């Protein structure tokens, strides 16, 4: 590995990316169609996915400015899924702001979302023609899997017994494959060898599964002072996270009865339910189980990361730091 | 022009297309996501758009079997728009069958529609790499315009005065550009010169506008015995068609008052309203105006068609016959 002379910082990448995302012309007429796109793209967020694309590119090449549009396409696609998921989940808020279907209406959120998906494809067409077919194939595969994952997630609400395997497969599709694609995409744009790009995909998928398990854990075990939203939200909503799925699988006798009662209960004090279910989790050792599973995915992903052969050592360290920060986040 | 030795028939094209559409594997898991796609694709319809792609291809080349998948992509895209439009319009029926959001629910129709759009793109990726970027650009442009047209159409419901120009522009985007793209697409796949492909696009757009004006006319003036659905549906719903827009623009004095009263009336006998508004149209000469506008677009389109330089005379005649049949349809 050779240290390059022009190391980039995460802040610089994020700033350039944010400027590009905010300055991009998604369309103007009719205003009613395009305003919700500007709105959702202005709500911020960590921009992890396009940042991963830029950072994967920067492992192999320095001129990341040349791929800001295709990198932003990944964020536009992600926000399209958020706009439609929020309708399906009847969510009132997104990043602390009113969701599109609440601010306008469901029809607007459907149609603006549709055109966002078209625009995401439009942001890919200037990729060099020799790379375009393969990248489109990978993007289509990823986009279909994200939809499949969302359908599995909705199906789970109607199913009594979701297995650990079903759950991991659902989060792999719904959230992890897009992280994998984002990284692979950046590597392919930088002309990295296909095996390298594939390793980055696997790294992204595995770390993505770990991140979702981390989300599940934080929802119950975060420090309320640092967390930013209500601890225990998943417990209140009976959301079938890794923690609840394992608890339902492993609870025996009196604990099993208590857990089932709390799940079935209609009128309840929220704090009381969160405290009671957390106590049940603690008695079964759910936290340790979930942490072990999460660490398993993190270990696998970092082993894959360290098997890469990248020319840009500063880029290698930067992406490692970014992902490790996410591994250790407390909110 | 040279007569080729292997003339195709519309029936043969349609049969091969239908077999391809029904046999295509859109996806299988989760079943809940893909079943609505098989359902809507099995409802039939005239398959005009992919048929136009095949026929435009057949103007220049004989092996239309090689482009069945990309041609079918146009139909998949069209059915995606129908699935989402039906949610937005709260339509109970599509081609005489229950709509997807009624048979399942709105969430299913949103998500299955999303994955249909992704699959339509997936059906384009095997186009030869040197043609792919241009075709994707044209498809993206068309897809965005179709969404823009739908938004304009929804906006019109809230607007008092829609002008003729606004209306023609809306139907151009919502329905005509996809016919134009379907033809241009077939020509480009057959390596036709770009000017030829552009002429076919213009032909398709103009004939598409004519077809929509024909729809508007038939809804009021069709022979009920041949029409298949209720004559006067647009009048009952106060739908802002070319006829109503021109009538509102041109009605004077007593006729104007009568028209405004019928539009504002809440409880009314449907037959009586249809008869009364039709009488108003007749007194202003709306039918003749709409027919003249329609013929203007048909004339423009056939002039463009006859300026083509195609090698396959039998294909030329076939596409001419198909479109003239549509021009003269009575339902």
UniProtKB/TrEMBL annotation, chains A, B:
It comes from Belliella marina. The keyword DNA-binding does not apply. PANTHER family: GERANYLGERANYL PYROPHOSPHATE SYNTHASE, SHORT CHAIN ISOPRENYL DIPHOSPHATE SYNTHASE. SUPFAM superfamilies: Terpenoid synthases. Belongs to the FPP/GGPP synthase family. This is Polyprenyl synthetase family protein. Keywords: Magnesium, Metal-binding, Transferase. Its cofactor is Mg(2+). Its EC number is 2.5.1.-. GO terms for molecular function: transferase activity. The keyword Plastid does not apply.
């Amino acid at each position: 590995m050779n240290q390059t002379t022009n190391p980039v910082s995460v802040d610089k990448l994020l700033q350039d990316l944010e400027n590009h995302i905010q300055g991009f012309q998604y369309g103007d007429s009719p205003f009613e169609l395009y305003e919700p796109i500007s709105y959702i793209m202005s709500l911020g967020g960590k921009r992890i996915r396009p940042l991963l694309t830029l950072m994967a590119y920067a492992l192999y090449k320095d001129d990341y400015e040349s791929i800001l549009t295709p990198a932003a396409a990944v964020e536009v696609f992600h926000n399209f899924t958020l706009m439609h998921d929020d309708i399906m989940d009847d969510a009132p808020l997104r990043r602390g702001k009113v969701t599109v279907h609440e601010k306008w209406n469901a029809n607007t959120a459907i149609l603006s979302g549709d055109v966002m998906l078209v625009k995401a494809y439009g942001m890919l067409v200037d990729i060099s023609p020799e790379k375009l077919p393969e990248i489109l194939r990978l993007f289509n595969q990823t986009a279909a899997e994200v939809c499949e994952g969302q359908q599995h997630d909705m199906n789970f609400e109607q199913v009594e017994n979701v297995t650990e395997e079903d759950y991991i497969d659902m989060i792999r599709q719904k959230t992890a494959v897009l992280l994998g694609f984002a990284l692979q995409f950046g590597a392919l744009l930088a002309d990295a060898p296909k095996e390298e790009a594939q390793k980055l995909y696997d790294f992204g998928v595995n770390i993505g599964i770990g991140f979702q398990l981390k989300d599940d854990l934080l929802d119950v075990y975060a420090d309320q002072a640092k967390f930013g939203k209500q601890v225990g939200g998943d417990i209140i909503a009976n959301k079938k996270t890794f923690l609840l799925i394992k608890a339902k699988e492993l609870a025996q006798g009196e604990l099993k009865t208590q857990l089932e009662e709390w799940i079935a209960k209609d009128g309840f004090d929220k704090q009381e339910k969160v405290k009671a279910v957390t106590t049940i989790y603690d008695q079964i050792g759910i936290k340790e189980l979930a942490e072990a599973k999460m660490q398993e995915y993190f270990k696998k992903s970092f082993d894959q990361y360290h098997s890469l052969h990248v020319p840009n050592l500063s880029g290698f360290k930067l992406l490692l730091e970014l992902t490790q920060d996410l591994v250790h986040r407390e909110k």
